[in-house]
């Protein structure tokens, strides 16, 4: 491995070499092996299934493009693709903007000790009962729910806010905010303080420092936050169903419907692959932009 | 911000932004806790009274208790395997230079970016082919895939703070590889391993899409919630929510306390030095 | 060397196309203090790591007391090392750190403790035995690192820039202690450093490396007074170089024809007439005067700058052809020299103080890369 000019060695060296290799393999291999078997193979199977056919409601191995042709020819597929993509992008931008002041406060206003506690509290909800939190929002947003009661108390109409984009956005924010907060805060906290002081020393005012020093320096982290907000919103299907109330037919809902109603596995596979392709392209472009260097 | 410099907008603006975000994050949690003690069937601000009857209902519901047992089993086994695999991968990346190292890293970080619906679909197809669809083993196999990257990240972060020469120094003093690992690397990484266990437990305990797809009739708690969600308004969701919040929040906050305390030095170096 | 104890023969190490060590051979006697020095990337640390078994040599052999050790894994080499970062185990006490190697060798508890305590006392750190290593000063940590290696009673101790983490004052103090310890114990020390003062004041022999090769091996005096190559001369510093061609002779003396005129040589080391050669003269052997005619070899120069260095002053001179010379003067000699910057002065030296470098071949510092 290290050299091709290995002269003949004694058996001691040979044994030592094999021992090293085995010891190393013991640590290197387990995770990739598990991921190959239970992640790469299933995804590969999904690709294969997209070329299979359904005969008498039974999935049958085949080599046909019919599922691809069918799905790509659907008008409502493209409509829901662009709707999914556009809504998730809008949510990602809105979530990033919403999170920014908070991240700034954690990075620059809070003392280091407070920052750690706040970060802990910000990320904790990410791991806790997402479904129940969505249900809570339903209670808040529904007609006669918490928000409409408050609005009525102030003399408003107090209609249900469910099935609106605002409701869907709340769902996306519930999911993605913790991740965006973490990424933004770490990016901002790592901006070189000496650079900030140097800019001020050269005459930059607070506004210029924010826009010309802090934001450019934190760009990779801020952009990755945006990307993750998009990834999570794009894949999300519970709030689209229960907060958006089916007004927003998104791709994940389409996928589950195709399988649950009618065993249309190949078509569901095609939609899934389209989703993955669009995710990868978006991620690739975003990461390139995030780490683009000047000059 | 260095102390002698002003913020672009008043401090109050940034702090208000922080408060708003925390309100959004914790309002749903607090409301679930509040309404779980409501005597009313329909949650509203004008609560008629305090009651623990929904708790009694959940805790005597056999299906719910079975779901809880399923959830604990799956999360426990998932956390064990995911933590072991995650630590191994983190240690391998820290300690060795090997062919395909970047590829392994990329593969390990990929699962969290793939939509769970698609993973669920692919895994259901795969597990049906090999005949384990609908079993808890299938759910565990799938949960390890999504949880192990978290374990790896937590352990790798901790290992990054371990002086790379320490392990070789131990070998230089006569320690065999396994004994250098046990005496130098493990004591250092132990808090992260504990944190990884708690976080992977929480990830698995809270996951519903893949469990729903691949678990068949073996419902876990979140799947039970999902099924309830599709039906009528049901106050027991608030109870389940409150119970799950207490479990997962406790686990995650302990884990974070451990992780953040270690990396505290790195995060706040610029101000404390 | 007759009583060779540790022998490194033809060690080589490459990483891909980068040659870290091209060829390293060295015979070390029992109890010798060897310093290996050179610019960063010269291969000195890689050589030491091959000795410790932390790198596998592509070629070559290492024998210790007659036994091949290059096939042994790290943990069987018996060549403990004092690391640049010290590499103390942070979650162990001082005593646990010192006991570590004994524990790995299966030494029983009470015996282990006795031997560790012996060394703690010997190095004057008994007071800190039960302390966390993180709460020690630089000098104390240094002693723990030494005790941890020496408690194993090794035949060879490897030291990789061991004093670089200390402040200047402490480093000088530790230098003295290291030298004393090494003399008392009679252990072979192999000491890698980039510091001239450490290498020259501590070592019995100094190895100067450049671009993966050994440039010169010799006693500190040898290397200081007689650098063999242009690289060593420049690395050691304080030496002026004049390029020229050997031409003509007068009695036992020969001449070197430089662009600034002919100078006499007393050692011509058998170079042929017309051969290109570099003449080296130490700065403290060059005299500077405002009037010509004071010395055997004399070159007219311009005084470019004065560099104050404590008791002495370095004068930087430029010859008409662009050679630069350095002359080291005592402070009081400078006071007598009535010359300001830009003035015309004369540099002169005795023929015996000039010596020819072995080869005029290029030996530029910096990493070498093998053609792929």
Automatic annotation (TrEMBL), chain A:
GO terms for cellular component: plasma membrane. The keyword Transmembrane helix applies. The chain crosses the membrane at residues 33-55, 67-85, 91-109, 116-135, 165-188, 209-231, 268-291. GO terms for biological process: transmembrane transport. It is found in: Cell membrane. Belongs to the binding-protein-dependent transport system permease family. CysTW subfamily. PANTHER family: INNER MEMBRANE ABC TRANSPORTER PERMEASE PROTEIN YDCU-RELATED (PTHR42929:SF1), INNER MEMBRANE ABC TRANSPORTER PERMEASE PROTEIN YDCU-RELATED-RELATED (PTHR42929). This is Spermidine/putrescine transport system permease protein. It comes from Tritonibacter scottomollicae.
UniProtKB/TrEMBL annotation, chain B:
Keywords: Cell membrane, Membrane, Transmembrane, Transmembrane helix, Transport. The chain crosses the membrane at residues 12-37, 72-92, 104-126, 132-159, 180-203, 237-260. One of its GO terms (biological process) is transmembrane transport. Belongs to the binding-protein-dependent transport system permease family. CysTW subfamily. CDD domains: TM_PBP2. This is ABC transporter permease. It holds the Pfam family BPD_transp_1. It comes from Tritonibacter scottomollicae (Epibacterium scottomollicae). Its main location: membrane. The lineage of its organism: Bacteria, Pseudomonadati, Pseudomonadota, Alphaproteobacteria, Rhodobacterales. InterPro entries: Bact_Polyamine_Transport, MetI-like, MetI-like_sf. Residues 68-260 form the ABC transmembrane type-1 domain. One of its GO terms (cellular component) is plasma membrane. It is a multi-pass membrane protein. It is found in: Cell membrane.
TrEMBL record, chain C:
Signal peptide: none annotated. Keywords: ATP-binding, Nucleotide-binding, Transport. It comes from the Bacteria. The keyword Transport applies. GO terms for cellular component: ATP-binding cassette (ABC) transporter complex. Residues 6-236 form the ABC transporter domain. One of its GO terms (molecular function) is ABC-type transporter activity. Belongs to the ABC transporter superfamily. This is Spermidine/putrescine transport system ATP-binding protein.
